[in-house]
Amino acid sequence: MNRRFGSVRARATLGATFVVTVALLAAGTAVLLSLRSSLTGRADGQAERSARTVAAQLALGTPYDKLSSLDDDERVVQVVDANGDQAAATEDLERISGAGTSVPRAREDTGDDPSGEPGGEAGEKPGAEAGEDPWEDGGSGDLDGDSAQGDSLEPGEIGDETRFGDGSATVDGATADYRFAAVDVRDPKKGLLTVYAGASLAAEQSAVRTALTVMLIGFPLLLAVVAGVTWLVTRRALRPVEDIRREMAAITAAADLTRRVPEPDTHDEVARLARTTNETLAALETSVERQRRFVADASHELRSPIASLRTQLEVGAAHPGLLDVPGAVEDTVRLQRLAADLLLLARLDAGEGPVAGARVDPVALAREEAAGRPDVTVLVEPGEPASGEVASGEVAGSRGQLGRVLANLLDNAHRHARSAVTVTVRRAGGQVVVEVADDGDGVPEADRERIFERFVRLDDARGRDDGGAGLGLAIARDVAVRHGGTLTVRETPTGGALFALRLPIA
Q1: What distance in Å separates the CA atoms of residue 326 and residue 305, rounded to the nearest whole number?
Q2: What predicted TM-score, i.e. pTM, was given to this entire model?
Q3: Is it true that domain 269-349 has CATH number 3.40.640.10?
Q4: What fold characterizes domain 359-504?
């Protein structure tokens, strides 16, 4: 179970479901609040219109029993005098809270000033049971029907202020919640009165309950659909990744680098991952094959001088007079050079680069390597420094490794030249170019890259007794690359080979 929920598919599903849940809760809450506010505002409008209708009739001196709104079955109306007593109320009103008096009691209207017995329990205020003031929207909070603006009203004048509040009423045995509006009016004969009119909140409550029921049923179903779709879509999207993983596991188990992972026919990140994985496998296969060939060629190259040296030593041990000391020394030197080449290649393969901060003068290095070689001529093109005194002509790198590159190039040129070898040093933009040219037969165009592979020797070179092991040019190119440069070969105007070493100026 832990592994299942630790998968990318499970985390994506849980994350999507959580985000949708939060969004649905926020949207549902906003919808309910907006619906309730809208319906409450509608009830406020209805209650205010009823209250002002009754207030308008009272302002004209209409008797209580002639008030038309008291017979409206959809409205609850209560008129309270200045003493907080009920003066008139909706027919069959048994009990009310949130208006003038809690227990209304109708009384006969005589048309005189309301100085008779109170129609309700005197002094009992709306909302007294709850101990709170239910009025809002600028209401004065005076629950006895009096207000600050009521004292300033002239006879027949209706107050501009409307106060709203929540309450309930029992009409003909049925109790319901109402939204009440309170409006002050000064009757010409009866004095200051407050009209409380209530609009039923049944529609609001029904709409809110319906919306809530729909949400409670619909939201879980929607979340289930989102989770299911996310699970399936993620599964389909990650199927190529699982195929890649399975194939990589098989390649690792079989140690077969010739196999490749499947590449989906898409242009997304998974397809790019598959292509990159196959490129990595191809590079690994090439590296492993190169390493195997290197070991095999190294064993072959070492076998010959070792066998020759052993034979000479065995003959010398049996017949001291027949010992070929110069031949044994030559084989030993050849072994020493081959071992040094193999060690340098191993260091280059391990990532060994030039020492930081070291600088080399290519002109001085070329002259140093050419010393003792009578067939080599060093040329410095006009305008270039003739010594290492000018820093702009120096290159950053290892003097020993760069010297090895020039020595290998000169040895190669010496083996193939007919009479002369020329080394030219010049500058080209931000690079120093060292060219080694010979007057031999040159390198065929088809072999100009192959000669830089390890243990590769062309047929003519293998036929010569002084031919190397085929590592010199490979070492030279690897060193050049490690120094940020290049090593290429092309043909000279006379048909010989010209090796160009390009290194960036320090």
Answers
A1: 13
A2: 0.49
A3: no
A4: Heat Shock Protein 90 (3.30.565)
